[in-house]
Structure formats: structure tokens, C-alpha cells
Write a structure and sequence with these properties.
By secondary structure, this protein is an alpha/beta fold. Helix content is 37%, strand content 17%. It contains 13 helices and 12 strands. It binds guanosine-5'-monophosphate (5GP) and manganese (II) ion. The site of guanosine-5'-monophosphate has 15 residues, from β11 and β12. The site of manganese (II) ion has 6 residues, from loops.
Length: 343
Amino acid sequence: MNTLQMANTPDYDALLTLFDQYHTFALSTHIHPDGDAIGSELGLYFFLTRLGKSVKIFNTDVVPPNYRFLPLWEGIEGAHSVGTYRPEVLIVLDASTLERIGKGLSKTLLPIHSLVNIDHHATAEAFGDLNLIIPTASSTSEIVYKLIKHHESPICKACALCLYTGLMFDTGCFRHSNTTAETHQIAAELIGIGDFTPDEVYRNVYEQVPVAKMHLLSEVLRTLEITDDGKIASVYATQAMFRKTGTTADAVEGVVNQIQAIAGVEVALCVSEMTDRSTKVSLRSQEYVDVSQLAAEFQGGGHARAAGCRIAMPYPLAIAALVQASQRYIDPDHFRYGDCQKD
Ligand code: 5GP
Ligand code: MN
């Protein structure tokens, strides 16, 4: 093995050694947690508790209702519960940066011995004492799966359900470009272990949509604008829309994927006006634009095809800046399937 390959070899052993050394662990993940964030936290929780460890999970934001079918989700505590508790080891999952676990939590949840960072974001910062960052992994849940396999431990039924949910969510139900033969193999193994069916997990995650969210969706879709070349599409959600439909910015999740599906569109933007008038941005690309780079221009990050950022500007200015920046990434000569579908 050459040096480069060695540098790229994920160091599961270093983390497993840490598991041998310590007894108390805390886990956390990013604000507005999604299926991979919660799935990977709970998956790792089940593994660590089977190793006899004392484990607590602290998240800034509550578990969204569509993930409340996952075992032990009620055990996830809020930032206010930290108090004077200090774990020996803090493991941050799927977060990209330490600050993304929430400003309060990143200052109060302090490990005595070691900070561990497990992530698959291309733009992830190596903020931990130990960093297990694998950008080729479909999801943080996949990394947790591989860690357990590396330990040659069995995966329990509850853990299988949590990891499958994370894998399913982050691959967009096995549709996105991060889906590989291996992802399907892991998913198949988890389905074989667990007491669940894929359709049941899908229905829990995606088919519990509150009607208020549909009303918001109809408002947001009406704002659709597409650049003259048909390559960049944007929508926005305002505080007025949230008030009118009785929703919050969380309800915008997933809308950007619908915009990205428009024939011919390469970059899709969905922006939300936040209560402090700053703008939360979701970015997607269809084939070749690296939106993690685009997001990084605005101090955000993510993956090549799905990224995000927060911009300290009112939303109309943020959209203008984002569209202008996106244009630099568009290759006018790039042929894509959608180009012959537009008419
Ligand atoms: P979404 O658009 O679904 O909220 O996020 C898409 C991807 O971008 C996720 O992988 C998420 O972690 C990342 N992302 C979203 N917002 C931010 C942000 O403000 N900062 C960073 N670093 N990544 C983000
Ligand atoms: Mn993830």
C-alpha cells in the first residue's frame, strides 16, 4: 500500500481503542437533524451500550415527528439537560463543523478526555482529537455500520433499523449519486437483520406530511424562477408564508429536491427567510456542479450534489448573490439528458 492509500485508510482501530479506554460517552449531531443524523446517533448508541458503555445523546433540536418511530428516540435529550454533566468522550456525528451541533451545546457539552468527529461531508472540518471522515461514504450511518463490522460485533435489530433509516435518507431512497452497489448490499444486510420492511420505513419518514406543509409547498412553488438558460432554478419561503400556513422553516425540507428535478436544471436553490432576517439556503445539483464549493463561498458546506449555507442578508439579496455565483459553475456546453426533454 502506498502512502496516499494509507492516509486514506479510515482509522477504525483508533476509535475502537478509544472505546476500550473509556466508559462514559455523549453523542451529538447537527441542528435541524435529519434521518442520517438521528439514525447514525441511535445506531452508535446501540453499539456502545452493547459494549457496556454509559451513553447519553444531546441534540439542540428536537427529533422531528417523522423520526419518532425509531427505537429510543425519546431518550435523546435537549441542550438544557447537559447541566454539569461531562462525558469522557464526546462523539459528534454528521455535523461538518463543531458549531453545527448548536452554539450553546458546542460550548457546554465538553468531553473530559476526547472529542471524536465522525462524518462523511466533503467539506467536513477535522475539529476532533480523532476524526473519522470518509467523504466516499454515502452517509454517517454507513460509517457507523463499518465501524461495528470492523469490531466484528453483531448488529442488533434496533441498530439495523436506525442505520437503514440513515442510509435510506442520505441516498434519497437509493437514488442519489452517492448510491453504490455497496450501499445496496449494506441496506440488504440491515433489512435482513431488522424487524422492519423498507416500505414501512419509507412511509414513516416521507408519508407523514402535515397538511400545513402542503399548503406551504404550494406557496413556495409559486415563487419559482428559472434563469434564461434554464440551468438555475430558485424558490423562496418567507416568514409571512410560515405565518400564513402555520409552519416553520423546517417544513421547507425536501422542496429543493423537487426544484432540482425540473428538466434541464443543473443548480437548484431553495432559500428560507429566518426569524432574524438571515437566509438559510439549500443547494442541489443534477450532474456536475459541485455545490459544496458553491456553498463554501458563502461559509457553508455539504456534498457535491447537496449542500447548504446560512447567509447574513435578506433573502432577495441572497438569491441574487447565489444565482450570480452559480452562473460561474455552469458549463454551457455540457450536454444532459434533460436538454432534449425541455420542449
Ligand atoms: P439540506 O439542504 O438538506 O439542509 O442540506 C444539504 C447538505 O448540506 C447536508 O449534507 C448538510 O449537512 C449540508 N449543509 C446544509 N446547511 C449547511 C450549513 O449551513 N453549513 C454546512 N457546513 N453544511 C450545510
Ligand atoms: Mn449525512
